[in-house]
Amino acid sequence: MLRYGTPGEAAGSAASAAAAADDPADAGVSVDLLTDTYRAHYGTLLRLAALLLDDPHSCEDVVQEAFVRVHVARHRLREPDKTLAYLRQTVVNLSRSTLRRRLMALRLMPRPVLDEPAAEEGAHGVLERDALVRVLRDLPRRQREVIVLRYYADLTEVQVADLLGLSVGSVKAYGSRGLEALRARMETS
């Protein structure tokens, strides 16, 4: 049932409401309530952050930052029973911001050059190439020419035959024998 008071009562209640708004103890969430919420819900908020983020240190940072932000803004929170909901939303927002910063950092990070081999690979490649050149020099002249033109110059069998003045069958035979000799000599060296 609605009750209408006298103008004096209305002025008195407005004055008491204004006094309550000015009194820091009555405005917003108390530090004690925030401390109790911290003790009771830190673990659940940490698990929430863990579902949104990928490493435990970031989760702890996000939850701690959420409590700090709520502590700083506690005078604006008028309904103490919504403190946990406000904390949850802050954890979600801070997690999103953390992920956004990570994605931006990944986008801005210089791309690794994939064409450059590692130093070990380069040294190993030089050793293999030197061994291959030595073995290649030991092959008979025609086999060496066919192998070099076919596999290093990337010519077709027809092009190699025309270049060397041989038949395509001879190119195939020299190539086959040359590859066989290369394999055998590379395995022994």
From TrEMBL:
<keyword id="KW-0238">DNA-binding</keyword>
<dbReference type="GO" id="GO:0006352">
    <property type="term" value="P:DNA-templated transcription initiation"/>
</dbReference>
<dbReference type="InterPro" id="IPR007627">
    <property type="entry name" value="RNA_pol_sigma70_r2"/>
</dbReference>
<dbReference type="Pfam" id="PF08281">
    <property type="entry name" value="Sigma70_r4_2"/>
</dbReference>
<dbReference type="Pfam" id="PF04542">
    <property type="entry name" value="Sigma70_r2"/>
</dbReference>
<keyword id="KW-0731">Sigma factor</keyword>
<dbReference type="InterPro" id="IPR013325">
    <property type="entry name" value="RNA_pol_sigma_r2"/>
</dbReference>
<dbReference type="GO" id="GO:0003677">
    <property type="term" value="F:DNA binding"/>
</dbReference>
<keyword id="KW-0805">Transcription regulation</keyword>
<dbReference type="InterPro" id="IPR014325">
    <property type="entry name" value="RNA_pol_sigma-E_actinobac"/>
</dbReference>
<protein>
    <submittedName>
        <fullName>SigE family RNA polymerase sigma factor</fullName>
    </submittedName>
</protein>
<comment type="similarity">
    <text>Belongs to the sigma-70 factor family. ECF subfamily.</text>
</comment>
<feature type="domain" description="RNA polymerase sigma factor 70 region 4 type 2">
    <location>
        <begin position="130"/>
        <end position="182"/>
    </location>
</feature>
<dbReference type="InterPro" id="IPR014284">
    <property type="entry name" value="RNA_pol_sigma-70_dom"/>
</dbReference>
<dbReference type="GO" id="GO:0016987">
    <property type="term" value="F:sigma factor activity"/>
</dbReference>
<dbReference type="InterPro" id="IPR013324">
    <property type="entry name" value="RNA_pol_sigma_r3/r4-like"/>
</dbReference>
<dbReference type="InterPro" id="IPR036388">
    <property type="entry name" value="WH-like_DNA-bd_sf"/>
</dbReference>
<dbReference type="InterPro" id="IPR039425">
    <property type="entry name" value="RNA_pol_sigma-70-like"/>
</dbReference>
<keyword id="KW-0804">Transcription</keyword>
<feature type="domain" description="RNA polymerase sigma-70 region 2">
    <location>
        <begin position="38"/>
        <end position="102"/>
    </location>
</feature>
<dbReference type="InterPro" id="IPR013249">
    <property type="entry name" value="RNA_pol_sigma70_r4_t2"/>
</dbReference>
